[in-house]
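Sharing a chain and its predicted structure for anyone who wants a worked example. Both blocks are below, sequence first, tokens second.
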Amino acid sequence: MPTGKTQRVAIAGLGPIGLAVARALDAGISGLTLAAVAVGDPGKPRPELERLTRKPPILPLPELAAAADLVIECAPAAHLRAIVEPFVTQGKTALVLSCGALLDNWALVEVATKNGGQIAVPTGALIGLDAVTAAAEGVIHSVRMVTRKPPAGLAGAPYVTANKIDLAGLRAATKIFEGSAREGARGFPANVNVAAALSLAGIGPDRTTLEIWADPDATRNMHRIEVEADSASFSMQIANVPSENPKTGRITALSVIAYLRKMNAPLRVGT
């Protein structure tokens, strides 16, 4: 419910997602104001910030929690704990996009519980999380996800490097991974946060199964999920247009913006 108080928002990371959210906040979202940002290289010129109506200060990660009520984590997964922990320790909110890393930093949920903070995971690039969340109130028997991406969208993933997979040499769609969502999140920390979000909405990261395909003919990041539950059986598919970063779909930033608009909206649609 709206509180009448303007909430201060910090953004950690100014890649395609963080910058899109910063622009939306600058244009105006009810009850919210962009208070600060954190970037990987503070000394780098940031002309994109100069174009904002109200340029936010660039702060080191440890100073964000003092400057804001809510942080949006849009940074590499390795920085998750440093971004989230100060906020939830102070009973504040952290909006997490690197939710694959959250699986290995579950103590952050315990910190949030102890201190009255909240970790929120937006829908991101996946479809149907509302349906999975609803089905989880009953009994879900199985959840399967198949991800298909252009090879460039999987380049540099630890699993690809460790297994010496030649993505550039692929001439046809190739399954390069099959396992649990937890294993997938560890092997592809920048690529399959959607699988981690799906697992958290449903039956957990160890029971959620994941396939990852590298497809040289694909032009979009495609995700298909299949759910068997006592309330319904359903399957859904989405084909996301990649952002400037081929690992991330454009809709991810829009999902964050939609979440922020819901926070103080008089009408909220969706679970």
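Comments welcome. Strands lie at 7-12, 32-38, 70-73, 93-96, 118-120, 140-149, 174-180, 208-214, 221-229, 233-240.
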